[in-house]
Amino acid sequence: MKISGIICEYNPLHNGHLYHLEQVRRNGADGIVAVMSGNFVQRGDAAILDKFTRARLAVQGGVDLVIELPAAYALAPAENFAMGGVALLTALGNVQEISFGSECGDLHLLYQAAKACHVCKTEYADVLDDLTRSGNSYPAVLSQMVEQLCGREIADVLRQPNNTLAIAYLNAMEEMHSPLKPMTIQRRGAGHNSMQSGADGTASATYIRQYFSEGGDCRRMMPGFAWRVLRDAAAEGKIGSLRNLERPILYRLRTSTPEELHDVAEVAQGLEYRLYKAKRAASLEELMAHLQTKRYPMARLRRILLHMLLGICNEDMQKIPPYGRILAFNDVGRQILHDSK
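Below the sequence we write its predicted structure tokens.
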């Protein structure tokens, strides 16, 4: 049995995800294992639907086994997010390949970009650190350094979000000496963070969440079974949002010392003092306005607030995931688990 692995969020499951799953099957996969973020996602937010519901929809959409990516890795930069997912797929022992989407769709180009990133992070780590300390964002600095070393074509690969994750998967596989074979599928239709829907019924999860929050009808952008679940969850008041955690986040911040904030995952370069000074903010919006700088993207700041709330420190991200929680499976998934044991 050929088993393919996917690292995903399905927040929510949409037509682009179904296209990806169809292409994995066409490439010969007899079984598909998805390592999926739980109730929190990489952009630093609560998932729009709870993890068990999203896992059930994933199985309806063509996945055979869904395993939860623990929060310390789901709420993490691309490198740690990838490390957690690759580690869990590798640990099963019977997954042969990892499949991921990319804007370029060119595995050779992705490998070149991955090698360039590795060189920048190892041989030029001091330069990378100095430039980020000067107030520049890490992704922008890395992209500039890669362009200087390898040219614009390779650097442009880094400027697309799915390419960036694909590179992180390749680097994680290299570091772990994982036997997984990579397979990339070129993303079609609307871009990752595009705020428009495509003529073919594709739309980014970002657009779907925004459009749905404004009362839009997303049924054309999602499989019917997923749309009905999303619609019913909204009617029952079961849509997840970071705003629902405003009070506990503000409480946790107001009762923390700078020393405690220093140990929170992704806090660096004195950010604990900026957090501490902003502790009297009356809302999440006001808090984010106090914290935002060119150096810290909004997604990272939101993740830091959730790290603080959940008690996640930098050390938690550096370890291999100690477990993989099974969220959903069908008969094929049951066989995959049996063979894995």
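The longest strand covers residues 31-37.
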